[in-house]
């Protein structure tokens, strides 16, 4: 049977063709955007750097610096750490404790001095969560233990804990 | 009238092919611009430099070899402004220190940049080096140095940055 004057239906299928192209295009763009937006997670390394920096500046040639166990010791000035970055950015935290290394029982030593946390104090607890479970938005912490002595020759244990949730970020228009 | 349907059909097909071509050209341009990895390299360098600054003590000078990135993204060694009789170092636009916000800012292209905060309170300065040496101060000296020693691509006479010096000192 011959049907005359029939018209092809291809032009009506072109809508679906462009819809398919749009889906492919959106998928490709989304994939590239997700790849480029991924963060290289260096928080653990940065926390370690902060802990080492604080520990290094509190100990001088094996001796605990004078004034470290006093309330008015200015950590920021002595360790050359920017106070505004730690206090206002809400991305960092560090603290330190001094223990009597000569009075340790079962790896637990008597605490002599505990400095209140600098920065976001909550990070100390949050870090334990991120260590226990996979928690991408929680900070990463590092701890440094340094055996040292004071001027009188008394054995001390300095424990520095530092944490960060600094991921950096893209800046537009710069 | 004969042939009228044929003209109508050809017009539609042409439009169809043009739209397809536009789509694929736009897609290919986007893909070629995206696969070079600029955002990833910006992030990597920003973090690397920020951590170097955080670990450094006063008096430290760090020389970072960035020649591969400079060659990849064609960052010139210097830009000479003949009208003002001066020159600038584009590497210092690619790698910046924002002392106010305490951030290392790395920018390899025109679409934004990556900023990484650092917590050190020391003074940080960047400079460009070539083969471990600082660029000469005067413009004439720079031009003489280019002619005598620094030309890498004789045919195109293009010079790309090589090393970034990071100087950390007391405030």
* Integer-rounded radius of gyration of chain B: 24 Å
Largest sheet of chain B, order of strands side by side? 1-9-7-8
Question: What string gives the helices and strands of chain B in order?
Answer: HHEHEEHEEEEEHE
In this structure, how is the largest beta sheet of chain A organized? 5 strands, antiparallel
Task: Please tally the β strands of chain A and state the result.
Answer: 8
Termini separation of chain B: 89 Å
Helix content of chain B: 40-55%
Would you kindly provide a written description of the structure presented here, covering whatever features stand out?
The complex is a heterodimer of chains A (174) and B (171). Chain A has 174 residues and is α+β, with helices and mostly antiparallel strands. Chain A is 37% helix and 29% strand. Chain A has helices at 10-37, 43-58, 75-79, 83-88, 123-132, and strands at residues 59-60, 63-64, 92-105, 108-114, 118-119, 140-149, 155-164, 169-171. In chain A, strands 3, 4, 5, 6 and 7 form a five-stranded antiparallel beta sheet that branches. Chain A has a two-stranded antiparallel sheet with strand order 1-2. The model of chain A has no long low-confidence stretch (mean pLDDT 88). Chain B has one domain. In chain B, 42% of the residues lie in helices and 24% in strands. In chain B, the strands form three sheets. Chain B has a four-stranded antiparallel beta sheet with strand order 1-9-7-8, with no helix packed on it. In chain B, strand 5 (103-106) and strand 6 (113-117) form a beta hairpin. The N and C termini of chain B lie far apart (89 Å). Chains A and B meet through helix 1, helix 2, helix 4 and strand 8 of A and helix 1, helix 2 and strand 6 of B. Strand 8 (169-171) of chain A pairs antiparallel with strand 6 (113-117) of chain B.
């Amino acid at each position: 049977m011959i049907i005359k004057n029939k018209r092809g239906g291809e032009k009506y299928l072109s809508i679906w063709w462009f819809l398919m192209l749009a889906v492919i295009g959106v998928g490709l763009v989304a994939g590239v955007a997700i790849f480029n937006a991924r963060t290289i997670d260096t928080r653990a390394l940065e926390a370690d750097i902060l802990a080492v920096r604080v520990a290094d500046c509190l100990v001088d040639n094996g001796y605990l610096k004078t004034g470290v166990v006093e309330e008015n010791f200015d950590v920021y000035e002595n360790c050359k750490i920017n106070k505004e970055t730690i206090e206002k950015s809400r991305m960092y935290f560090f603290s330190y404790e001094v223990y009597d290394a000569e009075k340790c029982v079962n790896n637990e030593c008597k605490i002599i001095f505990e400095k209140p946390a600098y920065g976001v104090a909550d990070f100390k607890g949050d870090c334990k969560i991120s260590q226990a479970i996979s928690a991408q938005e929680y900070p990463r912490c590092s701890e440094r233990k340094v055996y040292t002595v004071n001027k009188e020759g008394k054995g001390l244990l300095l424990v520095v804990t530092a944490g960060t949730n600094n991921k950096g970020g893209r800046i537009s228009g710069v | 009238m004969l042939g009228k349907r044929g003209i109508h059909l050809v017009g539609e097909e042409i439009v169809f092919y043009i739209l397809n071509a536009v789509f694929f050209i736009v897609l290919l341009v986007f893909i070629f611009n995206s696969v070079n990895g600029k955002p990833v390299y910006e992030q990597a360098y920003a973090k690397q430099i920020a951590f170097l600054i955080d670990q450094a003590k006063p008096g430290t000078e760090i020389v970072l070899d960035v020649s591969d990135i400079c060659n990849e993204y064609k960052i010139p060694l210097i830009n000479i402004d003949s009208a003002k009789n001066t020159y600038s170092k584009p590497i210092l636009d690619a790698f910046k220190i924002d002392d106010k916000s305490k951030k290392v800012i790395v920018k390899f292209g025109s679409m934004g940049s990556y900023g990484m905060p650092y917590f050190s309170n020391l003074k940080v300065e960047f400079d460009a080096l070539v083969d471990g040496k600082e660029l000469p101060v005067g413009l004439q000296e720079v031009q003489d140095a280019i002619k005598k020693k620094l030309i890498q691509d004789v045919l195109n006479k293009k010079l790309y940055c090589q090393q970034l010096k990071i100087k950390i000192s007391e405030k």
